[in-house]
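Blinded run. Sample ID left blank on purpose so nobody reads anything into the name before looking at the predicted structure. Input follows.
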Amino acid sequence: MTNTNNNTPFQYYSARTKEYSAQLAKLARYFRFTAPARLLTFAGLIISGLWFIKSKFDDTFIWLSLGFLVLFVLAVIRDLQLVKKQRTLKARLKVNEDELKYLQHQFSEFDDGSDLAATAPELSGDFDLFGAGSLFQYLNRCVTDQGRTLFAHELTKGKTTTEAIIKKQESIKELSKTPKFIEHFRALGLQTNMEKDEVKRLKEWLQSPALKISALKWAGRIWPFMLTGWITLTALGFITPNLIFIPIIIPLLIVSRKNKTIQQAHNLLGRSAQTLKKHASLIQLVENQPFSSELLKSVQQQLAVKNKTASGALKELFKLLDRFDLRLNFIMGPLLNILFLFDFHMLVSLEKWKAAHKKYVPDWFEAISKLDAITGFAVFAFNNRDKTSFPEVIDTPFTYEALALKHPLLPDAECVANDISFSGQPKILIITGANMAGKSTFLRTLTVNLILGMSGAPVCARQMRFSPCDIRSSINIRDSLARHESYFYAELQRLKGIVNHVKAQPNTFVVLDEILRGTNSLDKHNGSYGLLEKLISLKAIVVIATHDLGIGELEKQYPGTAHNYCFEVELEGDQLAFDYKLKPGISQKLNASFLMTKMGLTSRI
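Blinded prediction complete.
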C-alpha cells in the first residue's frame, strides 16, 4: 500500500503508476488466454451442435453442446469482467500519469476552459484565468460538465464572506488528505466523456408534463393474457391458424398510436444511460466516504433520499434506459411489443420513476458538481503541500500580508518570492521599475493569490492574511474595429467601469498596469494622477505599475495612504541583472536605452 502521509507527491504518484502498470501487464497476459478460450469453446459448441444433428439427436451430444455453451458463456462473462477492470485501471493510471507530468510543470493534458472565459472576460484576459497555460488549466480536475462550470464560477467570483471562505478551506483541507478517493472519483468520471447535452435532455424529460399512464398500464397488463388466450384457442381448434397474424398486428398498431410519445421519451433519455451510470457511480462513492467538514457533509445530505440511496435510484433509471434501448433492435423490439406491449411497460415504469424522484435529481447532480469543483483545489493542495499554505481570512480593516509570495504558474526554478504587507482603506501601492524587472508579474502574483484565497484554496506563500474583496483591473486592453473603438477609448471605458464599481463597492482591489499608454507623457501623468486621487477619495485599494516616476509624488501628498515600491535592475559588465525583489522607494534605474543600443536599434546610450 502507498503511504500518503510520508511520501512526497512524486513518490506517491510514481508508486501508484507502477502498481497500475503492473496490474495492466498482468491483465494483458490473461487476455492472451481468454481470447483463445472463447474461440475454442465457441468452436466446440458449433461442432458438438452439428454432431448432435448428424447423430439424429443423440443425448451424448446434447449434453456436450450444453457443456460447451456453459463454458462459452463463462468465458464471455469473464472477458467482459476483465475488460471492465482494464478500463478502470487505465483510467486510474492516466490520473496518476497526468499528475506526474503536472509535477514537472506539464499540464497541457488538462481542459483549459477556453469556452468559459466569458464568465469573467476582463479578469480572464488580465490574469490568464482561462485558455492554454491558464490558472484554470493548472487547477482543473473536473469530470462533470456542471462541475467545471461551477469551478470556473468559484475561480472568478470566489466567496465574499469570511465564514464562507473558511468553510470552503476546511472542505479542501479534508479532501486534500484523501488522494485515493480523488483518484477513484476522477477515474470513474474519465471513463465517460463530458455529458452536457445528455444532462440537458435528462432535465427536459424531468420537467416534461406527466403522461396519463393508467390506460397504458392496463393495456400492458391485459394484453399478455389476451395473447395467451388467443394462442390457447388456436391450439384447441376454436380459432383457425390462418388468423394468427391478428395478434401480431394488433399490438403493433396499438403501440404505433403512441409512437410519437414513445419516441420523444426515448430521444430525451436514450443517450443518457451512460451519464446516469457515471453519476450513479460517483454518487455511490461519495455516499460511502466518511466526511467531517461541514460543506462535504452537506453534499452527502443533498444525496439523502427516503428508504433508498440516490445512487440506487439512479441505477434503477439506468437499468430502465438500458432495457428501453431494446426497442432499437429490429428483432427484439417488435417481438417484445407483440408479446408484452413492451414500449407501454417502459413508459409506465419511466413515468413512475420520474414522479417519485424528479424533485431530487437536480439536487443530486448539484451535489456531485459541488464536490467535483473542489477536487482541483484539493489536488493543488496535495501536490504543493510544501510550497503552499492556507491563508488566514479576516474581515476588517482590509489587509493583505504575505511572506514568500509566488505566482503558481511559474516553475520554482524561475520564480522569486516577495514579501508584501499593506492594510486599511484607501490604500495605493505604486510599483515602479525598469522594463522586464518584474512589475507586471508581481501585479499578477498579488491578484492570482487573492483569487485563490477567496476560492478557499491554499496560496503560494509561506504565510498570508487577507480580507475578502471585489477585484477590478485594467491590464490587457484591446481595441475593436467592429465597434469602431480605439485602444485609448476602450481603456477609458474600462477605467470608467472601475470607478463606477468602486463608487458602489469601495471594498475593491483595483489593479492597474501602465495605464493611459495611448496619449503623450504629460497627458498620461495628469490623467493617471487624477484617477488615483479619485480612487483615494472613493476609499479603494489600488496597486499600480508605472514607468511614470512622477506618480511616486503621491506618497508625499497622501502619507500613510500611498506607498512607493520598485523593482531595480543592475548592470554587470555589458549584461543586465534582474533580482526580481520588491524594494521600498521609487526606481532609480532605467534599461530601455541600454537594451536598444545593445540590439543595434540606436547609437545613443
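Unblinding after everyone has recorded impressions. The chain has three domains: 9-103, 196-371, 392-598.
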